[in-house]
Amino acid sequence: MTPISQANGTRVQRDVVSFVRRSTRMTPKQRRSWEAHHDDFVLNLPQGATDTSIAPDAQVNLAAAFGREAPLIVEIGPGMGESLVPMAQARPNHNVLAFEVYQPAVARIMAKLAEQQVGNVRIIRANAVEGLERLLQPGQLDELWTFFPDPWPKSRHHKRRLVTTPFADLVASRLRPGGQWRLATDWQDYALQMRAVLDSHPAFDNDCAAGWAPRWPQRPMTKFEQRGIDAGRHIYDLAYRRR
């Protein structure tokens, strides 16, 4: 953990996180989107020690937040929402909860949601690991999407990768029996790590007899994914089901 300073001058320990810390500076257009749509889509929660953490005693009533009871899908790190928005739009009978830490990305997502009149998405601007642990109940989750998480390519940074056995334990506790976890990455060694973690995990079955899943046609091609393909990287899809 890394010590950081708070406004009152005290020092706290910042946990190692799985996402790269980037600038939160917004353009004027993103600022307008944030101000216009924040109340419609963003769930405000008490913060922990940092601006991307969630207070240990935080709670959220998802039925109230969405205005209904419905099967729950969570996406971790949807970026600018290129795939999140059309995938949520195609699933009007599901509630879709997105964890995205970057405020400019959230502003872009909200603009797309408003433009496409997609009303079944809510966003939490915080660390998804804390969100799953502190906000969701056991068995509450129907499906988890983890598409192109930060790869942390350097060996010394692999400990920062999201998909680890402890995280798989957490996901298993939140998925209902029969619930699905879909993943994708364009980094081979990370794909192999995902396979090693999940193939050996007692709570998950690989949905694909061949091991690797075919590309999921319901996931729209994004600019990010296309850049990986253009750079010569293979896209690895995986699909696991909670026992």
From TrEMBL:
It is an enzyme of class 2 (transferase). It holds the Pfam family Methyltransf_4. GO terms for molecular function: tRNA (guanine(46)-N7)-methyltransferase activity. It catalyses: guanosine(46) in tRNA + S-adenosyl-L-methionine = N(7)-methylguanosine(46) in tRNA + S-adenosyl-L-homocysteine. Substrate binds at K154, D186, T222, K223, F224, E225. S-adenosyl-L-methionine binds at E75, E100, N127, D150. Its EC number is 2.1.1.33. CDD domains: AdoMet_MTases. InterPro entries: SAM-dependent_MTases_sf, tRNA_(Gua-N-7)_MeTrfase_Trmb, tRNA_methyltr_TrmB_bact. Belongs to the class I-like SAM-binding methyltransferase superfamily. TrmB family. This is tRNA (guanine-N(7)-)-methyltransferase.
